UniProtKB/TrEMBL annotation:
Protein name: LPS export ABC transporter periplasmic protein LptC
Gene Ontology cellular-component terms listed: plasma membrane
Signal peptide: none
Database matches in Pfam families: LptC
GO molecular function terms noted in the UniProt entry: lipopolysaccharide transmembrane transporter activity
PROSITE patterns named among the record's database cross-references: PROKAR_LIPOPROTEIN (PS51257)
Superkingdom of origin: Bacteria
Length: 186
């Protein structure tokens, strides 16, 4: 009889432990859900065209199908989940164009992160293509550690890691993998 009591006691103990662990798991999931902070934009814009000016002169035009402004979070940012197109104008009226599938601007750092089919080009025929490109707004400087293709009237360069001024007057390549000279000289 004492063996039967031990078996019943063991089965009852296992059953109680299972019930307790399920209820603890349920409570734990509830606590996790309550602690979850959902990001909700404080402002949203659809199909917009924003012009930036300085002393009455247009310095850039930003267009995007959607902008989500997360100003109320601890580290505020603006997201462009459906892509972004930007046209920069220098003082002489020369243009630089930027296009990407996605973008995010970090408000505390003035850094813009462009991702997915990033293209930046000028009317002078310079074109840079990469998958991710950062733009430092304070210094008007672009940079990436990703693979890139740079095309200009002199030829085409392939590499990994590049930084350059917004007007392509200063270009620093880190690792060039290959070059093609359009004049036929190598």
């Amino acid at each position: 009889m004492s063996g039967m009591i031990k078996t019943v006691f063991t089965i009852t103990s296992v059953f109680l432990l299972m019930v307790l662990s399920m209820s603890c798991e349920s409570n734990f999931k509830e606590v996790q859900r309550l602690g979850f902070s959902e990001f909700t934009p404080s402002f949203q814009a659809e199909d917009f065209d924003l012009k930036y000016t300085d002393s009455g002169r247009i310095t850039s035009i930003l267009k995007s199908p959607q902008m989500l402004d997360f100003s109320s979070v601890k580290y505020p940012f603006i997201e462009f989940p459906k892509g972004v197109n930007v046209t920069f104008f220098d003082k002489a009226g020369k243009k630089t164009y930027v296009k990407s599938d996605y973008g995010v601007q970090y408000k505390g750092t003035s850094i813009i992160d462009l991702q997915g089919n990033v293209r930046i080009w000028t009317d002078a025929g310079q074109l840079l293509e990469t998958e991710q490109l950062y733009f430092d707004q304070k210094n008007n400087w672009f940079f990436t550690e990703k693979k890139f293709k740079f095309t200009d009237p002199k030829g085409v360069s392939f590499g990994e890691g590049i930084d350059f001024s917004r007007d392509f007057k200063i270009v620093n390549s880190q690792r060039i993998n290959g070059e093609v000279d359009k004049s036929g000289e190598m």
